[in-house]
Amino acid sequence: MSKVGLIPFTIQTVLKDTKIIPPGIELVGAPTAWEQGYFGHGNVIAVLDTGCDSSHFELQNQIIDGYNFTTDDGGDPKNIKDYNGHGTHVCGTICAEENDRGVVGVAPKAKLLVLKVLSGQGYGETKWVTEGIRYATKWRGPNGERVRVISMSLGGREDDQDLYKAVQEAINQEILIVCAAGNEGDGRYETDEFAYPGAYPEVVQVGSVNLQKEISDFSNTNRAIDLVAPGEEILSTYLNNEFAVLSGTSMATPHVSGAVALIIEQCEKEFDRPLTEAEIYAQLIKRTHSLNYSRRYQGNGMLNLTLDFGSEIKTFQTAITE
Predict the structure, then answer these.
(1) Is 247 designated active site?
(2) Positive or negative: CA dihedral 167, 172, 173, 174
(3) pLDDT by 10-residue block (mean), the chain, 322 residues
(4) Helix boundaries (H) for 16-85
(5) What is the pLDDT of residue 192?
(6) Which residues lie below 8 Å from residue 315, measured CB to CB, with a gap of 6+?
(7) 115 and 66 in contact (C-beta within 8 Å)?
(8) Residues 6 or more apart in contact with residue 261 via CB below 8 angstroms
(9) Under DSSP, is residue 41 helix (H, G, I), strand (E, B) or coil?
(10) Rounded CA separation 230/248 (Å)
């Protein structure tokens, strides 16, 4: 039986309260999208993790549904309680509510489908993750909502074929899958480090940079890295209505997941039609800039929502309608 788990991460500080736009959210340019009226409205992001503190004042209005695939709480399918803190932190980076308190997420009007696939100890069976992906793919909300993005800050060493098949099924349903690259990096781009499902070529594999835009020494390197985002000293929601500063590619991933919700909202308004998974990916990669590292470190570069692609959007629209 294959196992997956939290990609090792560091808890640096726990705070009782704060009032700030987290530096990582600023660094990827989310406030620029907000100024243009894009907050991720109407987009559901499935977060496969350790659950979520659904009573946190930043997240209680953001969760549209949830399901527990683990044996925590006797396997109660509706109990998504987070006994770890990791899932709550990831959820906050994606879409912590804008409410003049605490922090704010990248896409504060998006909604979360919380799928608990890791126990409080941070480990789970690969089949729980596989079932979670399939659940997200088939899920429909009370008003017919569908999952647009799956966010996974987890990984395992084994290439599980049923997991891979579930990934492919989700992508065939036009769902973009965003995964952490992993924290086994040795600081050398010449060596490959892989964590699954992040290493599958069909998913968006996210590496980490610090707040000075330098590649994190721990960030996995390989030829399938798609982009990088802030993953060190990331401030977000934590258990018991608190906040924490954590580091890891787990923290880089939700910056991208939230950004995708903003991109979908912007581009589907522009195109006046739904985008395919491939089109969403293309628009995401257009919003990156090179940090002048090897592509094995940075992929296409760092997420940057401040980039103005108005002309490219129109060119792209012309190309796909001809």
Answers:
(1) no
(2) positive
(3) 76 87 96 96 97 97 98 96 97 96 97 97 94 98 97 93 98 98 75 86 96 93 94 97 95 98 97 97 97 90 81 39 34
(4) 23-27, 30-35
(5) 73
(6) none
(7) yes
(8) 40, 43, 45, 94, 95, 106, 107, 110, 148, 149
(9) coil
(10) 9
Length of the chain (residues): 322
147 DSSP β-pair partners = 44
Instruction: Note if 86 is an active site residue.
Output: yes
CA distance 75 to 62: 24
Is 255 among the catalytic positions?
no
Look at residue 296 and give its three-state secondary structure.
Answer: helix
- Report yes or no: 302 and 291 within 8 Å, Cβ to Cβ: yes
Exactly one of 86, 119, 160, 255 is catalytic; name it: 86
Which member of 119, 208, 250, 257 is catalytic? 250
Residue 199 DSSP SS3: coil
Listed by start position, the domains of the chain span 3-321
Unique residue bearing structure tokens 């257009």: 286
Name the fold adopted by 3-321: Rossmann fold (3.40.50)
Q: Which of 126, 83, 91, 84 is nearest to 108 (CA)?
A: 91
